[in-house]
Amino acid sequence: MDDAKSAPEDRATSGPFDAAEVPSMRPYVDLGGIKVAPREGLQLRLEVDERANRVIAVSLEYAESLLQVQAFAAPKTTGLWGPVRAELTQQMTAQGGTVAEEPGVLGPELLVETPAPGDQGGTRVARFIAVDGPRWMLRGVIMGKAARDAEARDRVIELFRELVVVRGEQPMPPSELLQLKVPAGVQGQRQAPPAGTLQV
Ranges of Basic and acidic residues compositional bias (predicted)? Predict the structure, then answer.
């Protein structure tokens, strides 16, 4: 099992960033474990687990694509992306999907095709990317145009690299999801969107 850290060489200067690496003046949308740099044309949604009443992922709609991100606690010296890739490959193959590992600008990516739900036939395509940072792993799932189109993917990767992970100092077991929160000022929208998502 490959547990070496997987990250581009310029991660500390080009992102995705650790909270200690970014100037405090820069404006970000603060979602707790992840901070998002606002930009033109970006729509942000929070994925909510209704039963546990907690935010479990951030979805960013941009460039006709969807990027869903989650940050996890990780050991200081080893990476999570190697073992997680192996796990995802096994999981997706068991569900009847096909998985191809491809080299990407951030490191190894998984291109996953799964049968579309229902009777329509066809397949759904998703591309899994991740970066191991200091004591965290940031994982993204790219869907829509950027899953296949290289130019759209470059724009989405750029967005991914602007994200900031706030790991915090508290001890956490590896692979535990970093806590996400609704940003201040949008609590009142809680009931409006369809179950499971929260527009920000």
Answer: 1-12
The domain tally of the chain equals 1
139 inside domain: yes
User: Is the pTM for the entire model greater than 0.70?
Assistant: yes
Label residue 18 left, alpha or beta by phi (over 0 means left) and psi (-120 to 50 means alpha): beta
Encoding tokens for residue 123? 């397949």
The answer to the question of residue 111 being in a domain is yes
Tell me how far apart the alpha carbons of residues 141 and 109 are, in angstroms, rounded to a whole number.
10
Spatial distance between the Cα atoms of 199 and 193, rounded to a whole number of angstroms: 7
Band (pLDDT 50/70/90 cuts) for residue 185 is low
194 by DSSP, 3-state: which? coil
pLDDT in tens, 37-58: 999 999 999 999 988 889 999 9
Quote the CA–CA distance of 156 and 177 in Å, as a whole number: 22
Residue 166's DSSP bridge partners are none
Q: What is the CATH number of the domain that holds 98?
A: 3.40.1000
Structural domain range at position 109 = 11-199
Is residue 5 included in any domain, yes or no? no
Half-sphere exposure (CA, 13 Å, Cβ side) for 143?
12
> CA–CA separation, 120 vs 50, rounded Å?
28
The pLDDT tens digits for 140-157 are: 999 999 999 999 999 999
Pull the structure tokens for residue 147: 């899953």
